[in-house]
Design brief:
The protein is built from five helices and five strands, in the order ββαβββαααα. A five-stranded mixed β-sheet has the order 2-1-5-3-4, covered by helices on one side. Helix 2 packs across helix 5. The chain starts with a strand and ends with a helix. The structure holds FE2/S2 (inorganic) cluster (FES) (2 copies). One FE2/S2 (inorganic) cluster binds next to loops.
Length: 157
C-alpha cells in the first residue's frame, strides 16, 4: 500500500510516496538516485547496503521504508561535510583499504557506528564490530588499518 513517508536524508527533509514495505535500499538507489548504497546479497549477510538510521548501522536491503518514518538516514553521499571528506573516507583512501570499492560505502558507515561506540578501538573490537561486512577483494587487513587511522584522526573531534 502506498504511504507518505517523511524522514531526513543526509540532513535534508524528504517525503516519499511509495509502498511502505518497499525496501529502503531500492528507495535510495532507484527512487532517489543515491547509488552509493550497494546491493550485495539482499539477505542481511554482506553489509554492502549499510546506511545509518538514527546513527545506527542498518542493512537497508532488509529495512522497509515505513521503518524510517520520522528518522534520520545517512548514506555515504551524506558523510562529507562542506566538501571535506569524513576522516573515515580519507583514511580508507590513504590506506588503500579497497580494491573494487563495492563494499566500501557499507564498511565506512558501519565503521562510523563502531567509532562512536569505541573511539579508540582495539584490533579485536574492530574485527568483531565489522564482522557483518564482507569484502570479496580481501582488503580486510587494510580496512582494519584504515579504521585505526581514522580513530587517531578523530581524536578530540
Ligand atoms: S545487500 Fe544488504 S546485507 Fe547484503
Ligand atoms: S574492495 Fe572489493 S569487495 Fe571490498
Amino acid at each position: 500500500m502506498e504511504e507518505l513517508i517523511k524522514f531526513t536524508l543526509n540532513g535534508k527533509p524528504v517525503e516519499v510516496t511509495a509502498d511502505g514495505d518497499r525496501m529502503l535500499l531500492w528507495v535510495l538507489r532507484v527512487d532517489l538516485g543515491l547509488t552509493g548504497t550497494k546491493y550485495g546479497c539482499g539477505e542481511s549477510y554482506c553489509g554492502a547496503c549499510t546506511v545509518l538510521v538514527d546513527e545506527k548501522a542498518t542493512h537497508s536491503c532488509m529495512t522497509p521504508l515505513k521503518m524510517v518514518q520520522g528518522k534520520s538516514v545517512v548514506t555515504i553521499e551524506g558523510l562529507a561535510n562542506n566538501g571535506e571528506m569524513h576522516p573515515l573516507q580519507r583514511a580508507f583512501m590513504e590506506n588503500d583499504a579497497l580494491q573494487c570499492g563495492y563494499c566500501t560505502p557499507g564498511m565506512i558507515l558501519h565503521a562510523y557506528e563502531l567509532l562512536k561506540k569505541h573511539p579508540n578501538p582495539t584490533e579485536g573490537e574492530i574485527v568483531n564490530g565489522m564482522e557483518q561486512n564482507l569484502c570479496r577483494c580481501g582488503a580486510h587487513k587494510r580496512i582494519i588499518e584504515a579504521i585505526q587511522a581514522a580513530a587517531q584522526a578523530m581524536k578530540g573531534v
